[in-house]
Amino acid sequence: MRSISRPSPVSCSKPSNGLRPTPIRRRRGVGGETGFFGKAQNSKEEDGQDAAANDQGLTPRRPQAILRDRLMATLKAIRRSSAATHRAEMAKARDDLFISGAARRDRTRRLIELGGLVKASGLIDRVGHNPDAIIGALRVLTKMMDMAKTGDAGFSSTVLFHRWQEAGSSLVENHNKAVEAIKREERGWASRG
């Protein structure tokens, strides 16, 4: 047996093509709306949108939508700001590359000179090309200087420094004399040839 469809006892309205106003949920209580969502916080543009919505018979924007829009605008501003910061940092890094090129060359020159001084001191001839022994010997010298500063060595650090300086200057003088003798000898062979 077939059932016959009957109209529902609940009345329903005809579907409309226009927007239907939706009720706005408001926080009730001692203060009513919170300060952030209140009318005082809305911008003039949003007030104009609310007035236009009321003129057209539409519901004004909900506070959550306003908050979402403000958050999205804040996120866009943060992204723009971080992009601008990144561009500025990259420009500074490019400038630093040009400036630091000279500083890097100076540092490299000093390190090469220090390596030459270690070689000239005769340390490499005695310990070979053993980096552990070389750094250990230099560390012992540093500890000697620290002990002299505290007075544990029986002499002051200035005395130790002057002794090292005298020994180094005599070594440099001897080295310069030897280089000069080699140059004179080379000039002599060149004039004979």
Question: What's this model, at a glance?
Answer:
With 193 residues, this protein is mainly alpha-helical. The chain has helices at residues 44-55, 63-120, 123-127, 131-150, 157-192. It folds into 2 domains: 43-120; 129-193.
Descriptors:
193 residues, mainly alpha, single chain, elongated, 2 domains
> Treating each run of at least 4 consecutive H or I residues as one helix, how many helices?
5
Taken as a percent bin, the fraction of beta residues is under 5%
Total domain modules: 2
Shape: elongated
Helix content: 55-70%
Q: Decide which structural class fits the backbone.
A: mainly alpha
Average predicted local confidence, pLDDT: 75
Q: Could you name the ranges where pLDDT drops below 50 across 5 or more consecutive residues?
A: 35-42
**Quick one: how many beta strands?**
0
N- to C-terminal separation? 133 Å
Largest sheet data:
none
Order of helices and strands: HHHHH
User: What's the gyration radius in Å?
Assistant: 43 Å
Describe the protein in words:
The chain has about 190 residues and is mainly alpha-helical. It has two domains: about 45-120; about 130-193. About 70% of the residues lie in helices and about 0% in strands. The protein is built from five helices and no strands. It has helices at about 45-55, 65-120, 125, 130-150, 155-190. α4 crosses α5. It is elongated and about 125 Å long. Mean pLDDT is about 75; it is low at about 35-40.
